[in-house]
Amino acid sequence: MKRLITILAISLLLISSFAQNQWQLAKDKNGIKVYVKPMPDTHLKACKTITVINAPVEKVFRVIRDIKNAPRWVENVSYARELEAGKDYYYCYQIIKIGYGIKDRDIITYETIHHYNDGKIKISIKGAPDRYPRQKGKVRIEKVNGYWILEPVGRDKTKLTYEFFSDPKNIPAWIINAFITETPYKTIYNLKKLAEKK
Question: Which tens digits make up the pLDDT trace of 77-99?
């Protein structure tokens, strides 16, 4: 009997731990769903955003790849430039304005492009903090990972999945987590508007 109780207790703990690490729907508006989940060994959360855009995959891809115009649609990004690009990769530098008296952050990402036979495109995102000199007055974000997945669905429609996590360093977790739902929502909302423009 004691053994059975122990097994049940362990099972409940494992189920509880597993559930806490699953994606939870945090926002569902205008056809955009934003999910969040806690990241291991940190008080921060990752986000995953899913939507369908009324534009073909290649058009959505072109908007994402137009780095210099990222401030038009990526929430809180005030400046962006491409540092280097090849056939299936690019390095991107961005400045992020947080406000509230907090120093601007900057971020360098190494992004690799994967084209699939079914028309799907995946852009994998990794931090590359030493790829560009440190800038005065900016705090460099070092921990970054995520991806974009663009999948054709129906005629001239794209299912977009965007997952992202970063640690902007020395900002209280409650401030970061307060932005974790609204920032990706606004970013994808703006991207949809641009991509769906005739």
Answer: 999 999 999 999 999 999 999 87
For each of the domains in the chain, give its residue range(s) and CATH number, in order of start.
Answer: 23-195 (3.30.530.20)
Tens digits of residue pLDDT in 31-62: 999 999 998 877 889 999 999 999 999 999 99
Q: Are 117 and 106 in contact (CB under 8 A)?
A: no
Q: Are 51 and 151 in contact (CB under 8 A)?
A: no
Cα-Cα end-to-end distance for the chain:
69
Q: How far is CA 175 from the centre of its chain?
A: 17
Backbone angles phi, psi at 60, to 5 degrees: -60, -40
The Cβ of residue 181 has, within 10 Å, a number of other Cβ atoms equal to: 17
Reduced to 3 states (helix: H, G, I; strand: E, B; else coil), residue 110 is strand
Structure tokens at 147: 């991806």
Q: Tokens 């606004």 appear where?
A: 186
